[in-house]
Amino acid sequence: MRRLYTLLPAMLIGLAALCAPSHAHEMSVSILELQELKDGRFMMHWPTRRSAQTENLRPVLPEQCEIDLGMIDCAGEGLVGPLSFEGLGAQQSAAMFRIRYYDGQVQMHTVTAGQPVVYVTGQFRGEGWVLFKQVSSTYIQIGVEHILLGIDHLLFVLGLIWIVKSRWMLLKTITSFTVAHSITLAAVTFGIVGVPERLVNALIALSIVFIGVEIIKQHRGETSLTIRRPWIVAFGFGLLHGFGFANALMDLGLPESSLLAALLAFNVGVEIGQVAFVFLVLALGWALRVMSVHMPPRAQLMPAYLIGSLAALWTLQRVAMIVAA
Fold first, then answer.
1. Cα 183 to chain center, whole Å?
2. pLDDT at 6 over 60
3. Are 54 and 92 a contacting pair, CB within 8 Å?
């Protein structure tokens, strides 16, 4: 497979749009938590300190629900119906409701400028297959949304696509990456291991710097383990990226009664988003080649330098956060 030099215009546009976030793998979506109490009411609070960009967000609840001093009373009908946010789209494009029910079940609903209203149908109800379908559909959607918001993860995958020369090796490399991050995602979720979130995020940014350097080496005719056996390096860094996925998933919460189903569904959603991104990049490269779009030799490595520079900036910022803490 020819190297995707012709992707330069699209990559430059994408990178320009993505340069603003400095904590790409941390959850940048504002989360409003609704905690059900024993009497059926809900306590409303933001679990993390709100930024200036989210101060104008105001929740809009179903018509039977009233808010009084941070408490939500839905008049015995339950928290069922449309949810949305006022102020979404001006300075923040997405926000999330995290609903924690009294029996331990957790549901997440993401509201975006493109999908400004979501509908809550109540708790996961039923047993066996019915409960499995309800949990799966919710967490698959969360997984897809998370990977598409995981800018640094997508940049790393883009670097792998650039380095790999054949479709068979690309399949092998992406599969290796998938298996690796699935292992660490499960290990953290089940409490087998735990990793400091800030350290993981800094190392993830550093992994993108590494892949940018490897792209430049390949262009110069040099070789390395990454160039010869990209699937091995993808597996190693996949373990690291899996810790990042796990930290985000644990921040969102998992239903204790359906932990395994939620974990599997989240991972499936991540893979759906990842595969869609890979096919999008390959399709874009094919389309540009068909149109005979070519870039001057001096410009062919510009995206690699931009990816590496952006990742280096993230690394420095995240290391600074560790030192400050």
1. 17
2. no
3. yes
